[in-house]
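Example record for the data management plan.
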Amino acid sequence: MTTRRVVNVVHGMPTSDGAGVKLRRVIGQQALSELDPFLMLDEFGTDAPADYIAGFPEHPHRGFETVTYMLDGRMRHRDNHGHEGVLVPGSVQWMTAG
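Corresponding structural encoding:
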């Protein structure tokens, strides 16, 4: 077994996206620029619905694979063609865009 050591710890960065949705960008920030734009990881976690209720304007996911998983709470996720699903605790939504 090979032993490895942690070289760098990068914490998520508070930011907003879309129509002002507050989130924490874990992967896709300047500190990890070697991964962008191929991988992005955002964390939504709030008890204040106003932090994310505005949602995101219509946008295509051209060529993206999006994976959304819900640990707690409830969220309606809809694409720009009107396809949607409601995520509840323990659910996962995987979207493959053309």
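Summary line stored alongside the record: The CA atoms of residues 60 and 81 lie 9 Å apart.
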